[in-house]
Amino acid sequence: TFRGNERVLIRSLIMPVTGWLRGTVKAVPSGDTVLIVANAGPTSSGPPPEKIVTLAGIIAPRMGRRDGSYADEPFAFQSREALRRALIGEPVTFKVESEYASREFALVFKDGAGDIALEHCKNGWCVGKPSREDENDENAMKRNQLIKEAEEDAKQFFRGKHTCDPLLLNKAVRNKSDPRLVDEFIDSKGVEPIHCVVEVALNGSTMKVSVCEEGPARGAEVTILLSGVVAPAMGKKNEKEPEPHAREAKYFAELSVLNRDVRVAFVGKDKYGNRFASVMPKDDHSSIVPLANALLERGLAKVSDYSAALALGGAGPLRTAEAIAKTNRIRIWQDYVPPSNEDSHFENMGRSRKIQGKVIEVVSGDAVMVEDSRTGEEMKVMLSSVRAPRIAPLGRGARERSVKDEPYAREAKEFVRTRVIGKKVEVNFEYTKTIAGNDARDIPEKVIEFGTIALIGEVVKKPPQYNNHGIPIEAEPEDAPNLAELLVIRGLASVVRHRENEARSHKYDDLLVAESKAIQQKKGVHSPKDAPIPHDLNDASENVKKATQFLPFLQRAGKFHGVVEHCINGHRFRVSSQNAGAVFTLSLSGVRCPTREEPFAKEALNYVRNRVNQREVQVAANSVDKTGTFRGTLECNTLTLDLASELVRAGLARVSFHGDASALEVEKAAKIARVGIWKDWDEEAEEARRLAEEMQANNLGGGFSEDQNPARFYGGKFYDDENNSSNNNSKNKNGRNRTYGRNRTRDIS
After folding, report:
1. Model's pTM, two decimal places?
2. Which backbone phi and psi does 611 adopt, to 5 degrees?
3. What is the tens place of the pLDDT at every residue in 228-264?
4. Helix H or strand E encompassing 697
5. Which of 267, 344, 680, 686 is a good FRET partner for 440, with 20 to 30 A between their CA atoms?
6. Who's near 638: CB < 8 A, 6+ residues apart?
């Protein structure tokens, strides 16, 4: 009996009066059985009807069961292969002659080739088996006689199963393959296509193939998942209804590749050992598109983000095919709604979605601060579609101390710092996320902007590319490196799995490829080993006592290497040094920048952020003040002079009263040029201010000034305003004179 719509069967297959039927051979289960499908396309009720028939008048060696309970008879597989190659996908005309034990026996004629059973017997792959009903049919008796003559002819010339060749006789029965050797053979091929035959299509994107190439895997059946796509599931037998369009997807896959010779490129595995593969036509130059692309174009499958990166030829063609189905809204995309366009946010901000700028700060492994080269605006950019390990929040409270950095968080931030800090980049904004505010706590709503950051001035070489048929193609032009991809391929970030309609990075497929490589090589966060324990640096500026203890070590080191972690203001910084094993606060000696709300405070801070923030610097510590802040010098390869002199020359810092002569000369030049804070400079007012500053510093003798060494102090004269007398000649209990000249110092020993 036919399976499917009986009305469609009658309309599409039955020829008037004669009872002969027409169809296409969809599968060949054995050497004497074929599966024929109606020529009509799928209907609203599902795929067209199909019929399994046995060739009348012959019997071929019996095929074994897949579960191994029954082995192949000799030459069963070879007989089936001969019939498969002759009939698969070919139009045929057939007529059911008889039925027995739920089997239908039919005469099958291939267009232009005559009786299939007779030809098959002539080639020696079957023998005649007349039916009892044929004894009363003259035409059947004549046909049986022709089959018997064809069988005798095949025996006479040792064709097919009648061969006497010992080599062929040894291969008459397929040997069961060792699964371990099969895996080794497939793995050794890499992504090189292997000749296979599709045996079963479980659904539109899952099938079983048998390996046809010589070797330990020949004849082995391997279950594969089409890389880059996922088709609707058929559901378990008698338990669950198939998903919408699942039957259509399975029918299309069967009609396209079932029992056909194909080339299969095994491209990878999932964590459960399931193999992903790309299935392509056998002919290298075939115009037929690969099965995965064809399913996508017809709306019978979706792109799978998990395996798209593994697809031979890349995920680009798959995305293009899926976009066609989405645009036409066919089958599974009939209710598709495109994601909302976020251009309005950037229009309201008065900013383009693509900008060029300079990275001035690295916040974390996936967040940086970029200064727009056109407007000078600073903006925080989160990397699209990736997540780097989180750094613990700053703070000295118990809650902050209890939260630890995630593994590889510092390594990710340090990698980003070394690659992009101070460099020109191109930012392509792609989507935003809104964080709700809290009115009770007066926290406003926040919009986070995500984008792809490309490093301008650098190029990355792309690996060899293959087209959909596995043929090498000319490499695309080299692109600027994608910062997110550089992180992911080193295992310092993971790719975010977006929902179906969520916006994502336009380089999302490249990120998936990079992540698959990092997982394969077990790098970073994908490593089974424990993450390296971060080395916590001592806070040398925690208090003045601790700073005083550290000072001799830093002084003996002279100039040592460090990294500016944060710019507090124009002359005050947080510096970390692996060489010194400490993190400390550094204030530039001999100069002071405007701070807080003072004029040019913001300009001074921006000046140092653009030049030394998170840069590698050379530091020399000279002394410690009463707050535990080290005072010294700071040099960087982005500066011509040391930072203090550069600030003075730019008119963004004043030289203190105890500054050296060279600094005073630089300051004098800045005053003459009237730059920065010297824009409205008045020489007389400046002199008065300086005298007042000196008087304030020296009026209370014996106190430590801000920039003194704890082992030294500045003394001043004490005056009695009432009698205008001084205590210059008074002596202490040891008989030593307490009076010192202005700005003179003595060591306490």
Report:
1. 0.73
2. -115, -35
3. 999 998 877 666 788 889 999 999 999 889 999 999 9
4. helix 683-698
5. 344
6. 422, 611, 612, 615
